[in-house]
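During the no-cost extension, the postdoctoral fellow (Dr. R.K.) reprocessed legacy sequence entries with the updated structure-token encoder. One reprocessed record is reproduced below for audit purposes.
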Amino acid sequence: MQKESGDLRVFLQNHPVFSGEEFTAFLNARGSSNPRTRESTLRYHKRQGTILQVRRGLYCAVPPGTSPEQLPVDSYLVASKLASDAILAYHTALELHGRSYSVQDQLVYITSKYPSGRSFKFRGINYRAVASPTKLNGKEPDVETVDRAGQLVRVTGLERTFVDVLDRTRLSGGWEEVWRSLETIPYLDLDQVAEYALLLGNSTTVARVGFFLSQHRDALSVEDDLLDRLRQHRPRNPKYLTNDEPRSGRLMSEWNLVVPEQILKKSWEELA
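Re-encoded structure tokens follow.
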């Protein structure tokens, strides 16, 4: 019995956030494959306050001396465990890369199980599942694995994240947040950025990427050849940079993109 308790303590120490599948694998490794054993063990430790249930099939380990109510929960670890193939993305990836202007109360993860991987709220954080861009056909380029509290978390790389947040700004905090966040990035593999932008197959997204890079060519050392490469895939007809209403702005003919004045002038800086 002591060894069983010791094994569980080690598991909980190594898994501050864990899924039901991970707990089942732990029990199976110890020869306890009965599903009733899993349920009774989880119920017991929830009553004892050593496990906090986040939602069905997802739990946090509660260290000795801490109550479940006082337990600080790592929301990024929670998001990473919401699906077996979860990839933290969009503004959430910016946060993990340390490149977000502000922290949002929504964490976004990509899963092939969308829409079955439904969104939910826990301790004021909204966890949102989204599908990967359709043009990727189930492939997930530029995904990194990072260590967080001893557990591995999958997150889109910075180059992919740069394009993704310009592609789907509504998952990324809006245009001001995206602009101010991306301006904190000191370096990018621009060939990788261009390759991924073209892979998405969306001319408006390509134009958004090209416009941002052309506006920050000195800071990011953007060469003319790369801009020319992107420019060849701009929209044939003018498109709006944003989907906000009312739609207005100045036409950037180089990219066939209508850009709002507040973005061109960075009007938020006047309020700082």
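Residues 75-271 form one domain. Residues 145 and 154 are 5 Å apart (CA to CA). The remaining legacy entries will be reprocessed before the final report is submitted.
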